[in-house]
Design goal:
Layout (H helix, E strand, L loop, with lengths): L4 E5 L6 E5 L3 H9 L7 E7 H17 L3 E7 L8 H13 L7 E6 L1 H13 L5 E6 L2 H7 L4 E6 L2 E8 L4 E4 L9 H18 L1 H10 L6 H21 L14 H10 L7 H18 L5 H13 L16 H8 L11 E5 L5 E5 L3 H14 L1
Parallel strand pairs: 2-9, 3-4, 3-5, 5-6, 6-9
Antiparallel strand pairs: 1-2, 7-8, 10-11
Helix pairs in contact: 3-4, 5-6, 5-8, 6-7, 6-8, 6-10, 9-10, 9-12, 10-11, 12-13
The structure holds nicotinamide-adenine-dinucleotide.
Amino acid sequence: MSELITVPVALGERSYDVIIGDGALETGMDRLGPLCPRRRAFIAADAAALAAHGKRLRAGLNAAGLEPVIFEIEGGERAKTWTGVERLVEALLEAGIERSECLIAFGGGTIGDLAGFAAAVTKRGVGFVQIPTTLLAQVDSSVGGKTGINTASGKNLAGAFHQPALVIADTGLLASLPEREIRAGYAEIAKAGLIADAELFARLESAGAGALTGDALTRAAADAVAFKARIVAEDEREGGVRALLNLGHTFGHAFEAEAAKGALVHGEAVAAGMSLAFRYSVRLGVCPQAEADRVDAHLRAVGLPASGAELPGGPYQADRLVARMGSDKKNRGGAITLILARAVGEAYITPCEDAADLAAFLDEDLRTG
Ligand SMILES: NC(=O)c1ccc[n+]([C@@H]2O[C@H](COP(=O)([O-])OP(=O)(O)OC[C@H]3O[C@@H](n4cnc5c(N)ncnc54)[C@H](O)[C@@H]3O)[C@@H](O)[C@H]2O)c1
């Protein structure tokens, strides 16, 4: 077992801790007791994570004197539907969950988003705990209280803000995660550096592919969580600065919406999206080319895509992507909201002034990479 790092998320009476590291599961169990007053642990569990780590999860709960009530769910975007919420809420009600009790998400970002939404609406809000089992969920989606599902109109368009009371991010749970998912989660760590922590990004650059394993990964994950915690504490409901966390996502969500079903992993779309955001910033004359080159070089060094042309799930069309970007929920007054950058660590939010130019840029990227 290596060192555990605890990152506080300061939100007044809704403050909570994120415990990160190999072995966090067992340590975190002691903190679960007070959140489960009837000694029952209701768990929405990703089927793959449960198959790999169910024994350990159950042993930890038993040692903490908690009885597991497990709802097994196939993870992935297919979980984030109205039907998925309905099933989970009905199952919780049938099991007799009380408002003073909590639902625990044991899975990746999709299970966390679904379970968080179910927790927010069941009896107008039961407690919520996250035990993220993918790197993306550990460094990003489990922290900050955004929950939700996809709708026919797009990704994450229905949901609620519902903060967890505790996040237990055990990096040991990542041992069973496919390498592609590790790299995808890493994109969100790199994102933290690119938005506003140039020192973090420089550390990641010098670690190269080594940043994806062992203690280096735990430290980088904790840095990314601490960064997100600061932003969330400043702007919990995304009235302003929190929108910076969407760096790479406006482009990325458009690719995800257009991709062949199941072909694209969220973090890959975000990685390509971050590269596009930096290169579009160069095109607009606000960012030096060398900074965008650093971004692409690091993404490629860790095996992530650095352009739309490198993404699986195509072919993609620039005009369709821009149309998708036009329905993003961050948009204001009809204009696409972009997160661009003046340099590594200096992202900013701006409306897109020229959608035709954006389409031309994307078209070029798709043809030449
Ligand atoms: N709420 C937020 O703030 C926020 C932020 C970023 C992303 N998200 C959302 O997160 C989702 C993506 O999350 P994700 O990348 O974790 O995907 P995911 O939940 O689909 O998990 C990826 C895959 O890994 C499997 N899996 C999970 N844990 C495993 C383990 N330990 N071992 C083996 N397999 C395992 C799952 O079954 C799934 O097939 C997207 O829907 C995105 O919108 C939410």
